[in-house]
Design a protein that fits this description.
With 339 residues, the chain is an alpha/beta fold. The chain folds into two domains: 135 residues, Rossmann fold; 181 residues, Methylesterase CheB, C-terminal domain (Rossmann fold). The protein has eleven helices and 15 strands. The strands form three sheets. The chain has a seven-stranded parallel sheet, sandwiched between helices. Strands 2-1-3-4-5 form a five-stranded parallel sheet, with helices on both faces. Strand 1, helix 1 and strand 2 form a beta-alpha-beta unit. The radius of gyration is 19 Å and the shape is elongated.
């Protein structure tokens, strides 16, 4: 992007506004064009300053961030990065915001998540949001009908999914179509640690499959989807006729932990031709090399197409490497996974 990304910061705390502004100040490609203490002030500044990206607090006076987000997506869709405190209610609201159109979420510095972490992560999130394709109203787009026919002949079958920016909604749309007795699913979504459990719980509440945040040693079984916990890599290991989840720390891969590549490479090694992998919307290259390894091991592979992606980066890289056996719009991916 040749011009600097213009950011408007909306938060009722002057201290937080200063922290966020300072976190972005060192990036020459990003300019904070203004701040606002609440959505009412923000509305006027959006019209006057025309920002490319908005950072938005959850809890604010006069109007909460979630209500403002819904209004914004209905009238003037704009890439939004939610800035959430670490409380349970705020975490749930932040995950709900992703469904209603926010493209990224990041915690406020607190406890284990430091100002240094914010300075590292926030510019990346802003860049990802700036490249997002906005549609109105993306968050409430209808999903296809739930599927019922499952091929049960391969009991070692396993589905691996990877996503980043825009992926929380893409994963929700795929999992909503999965029947109760679907083959096991393992998934990596780039999401901060404090929000991954709320994300898994939200999916579990709306899907026929059981969905949970993966724990080390979890059985990977039919009818259940495991979501990688934030800040931990998820991989699989073969055990008898099935698989177990391996949840561990380790270095960042493609600047990510969890990383899609880590999951896909383990699935290629442990499941081979019994697996199918799909790389969904997201910024960067994570998952492309892993998807290629899956394809080379005999697995079927899918990349989400450009038109239905919020950000086409990860699928584009997989296609460039020749890793994608099929390139499909989001609404067809669940059917292809079960074909």
């Amino acid at each position: 992007m040749s011009q600097r990304i213009k950011v408007l910061i909306v938060d009722d705390s002057a201290i937080v506004r200063k922290i966020l502004s300072d976190a972005l100040a060192a990036d020459p490609g990003i300019e904070v064009v203004g701040t606002a203490p609440d959505p009412i002030v923000a509305q006027e500044k959006i019209e006057r300053l025309k920002p490319d990206v908005l950072t938005l607090d959850i809890e604010m006076p006069r109007m909460d961030g979630l209500t403002f987000l819904k209004q914004l997506m209905a009238t003037r869709p704009l890439p939004v990065v939610m800035i959430s405190s670490l409380g349970q209610a705020s975490s749930r609201a932040a995950v709900e915001a992703l469904q209603y159109g926010a493209v990224e979420v990041i915690p406020k510095p607190s406890g284990p998540y430091s100002v240094g972490d914010l300075k590292r992560d926030l510019p990346y999130k802003i860049r990802a949001a700036a490249g997002a394709k906005m549609a109105s109203p993306r968050a409430v787009a209808p999903v296809a009908n739930r599927l019922v026919n499952v091929n049960r002949t391969d009991r070692a079958a396993i589905i691996a999914l990877g996503a980043s920016t825009g992926g929380t909604e893409a994963l929700r749309q795929v999992l909503l179509q999965m029947p109760k007795d679907s083959p096991p699913i393992v998934a990596v979504q780039h999401i901060p640690a404090v929000f991954s459990r709320a994300f898994a719980e939200r999916l579990d509440n709306c899907c026929e499959m059981r969905v949970k945040e993966a724990e080390d040693g979890d059985e990977i079984k039919w009818g259940r989807a495991l979501i990688a916990p934030g800040n931990f890599h998820l991989s699989i290991r073969r055990q008898g006729a099935g698989y177990r989840a391996v949840v561990a720390g380790g270095t960042l891969v493609c600047y990510q932990r969890p990383a899609v590549d880590v999951l896909f490479e383990s699935v290629a090694h442990e499941a081979g031709k019994h697996a199918i992998g799909a790389l969904l919307t997201g910024m960067g290259t994570d998952g492309a090399k892993g998807l290629l390894q899956m394809k080379q091991a005999g697995a079927r592979t899918i990349a989400q197409d450009e038109h239905s992606c919020v950000v086409f980066g990860m699928p584009r890289e997989a296609i460039r490497l020749g890793a994608a056996g099929q390139i499909l719009p989001l609404h067809q991916i669940a059917h292809a996974l079960l074909a």
